[in-house]
Design goal:
The chain is mainly alpha-helical. It folds into two domains: about 80 residues, no CATH class; about 60 residues, no CATH class. It has six helices and five strands. β1 and β2 form a beta hairpin. The radius of gyration is 29 Å and the shape is rod-shaped. The termini are far apart. The structure holds zinc ion (2 copies).
């Protein structure tokens, strides 16, 4: 690793946040002049890209910056999309469902047991607190909680 900036020939140290290229390193202020992201924006992806080219090559191809930026953004978007997908899948899996009809339209059958009419609840306004919260509720005190399916009326414990 060259100890001097390939562009300005100044001695490099960590405070100059040098970026390593294939043929040596360039200080932060020099890479910024040529459109390379500054020290605070340099990600691993940028570092890997920089190491794949000579500094001279990078300088002569300003379109490289845009190309890399687009590639990195595309990668990030993919990662984000995958994350969202996995979360949706996880949520779907953990959802509490009626054991009979697999409906997610269920409600805790708790204190309102007395006089609670399933028929009334079915077709009426349904609790939209989210079944996720119900699942969490069930696990919290370790005790089984009684639920009722608002679609078919099945009562079950979880
Ligand atoms: Zn420099
Ligand atoms: Zn059901």
């Amino acid at each position: 690793m060259a100890k001097y900036c390939l562009e300005c020939n100044q001695k490099l140290n960590l405070f100059k946040f040098p970026v390593r290229f294939k043929n040596g390193s360039v200080c932060n202020s020099c890479v910024k002049e040529f459109g390379f992201p500054g020290a605070s924006e340099i990600t691993i992806a940028w570092q890997v890209n920089a190491r794949s080219v000579d500094w001279e090559e990078f300088k002569s191809k300003p379109e490289l910056v845009e190309q890399w930026r687009a590639e990195i953004e595309e990668q990030n978007a993919k990662v984000e999309a995958r994350k969202a997908e996995q979360q949706a899948e996880k949520f779907e899996k953990e959802r509490l469902r009626c054991p009979k009809c697999k409906s997610i339209n269920i409600q805790v059958l708790g204190k309102q047991k007395k006089g609670f009419s399933v028929g009334k609840a079915v077709g009426g306004a349904v609790l939209t607190g989210g079944v996720g919260t119900l699942a969490g509720f069930a696990g919290k005190n370790g005790k089984k909680v009684e639920f009722v399916c608002l679609d078919c009326g099945t009562q079950f414990k979880k």
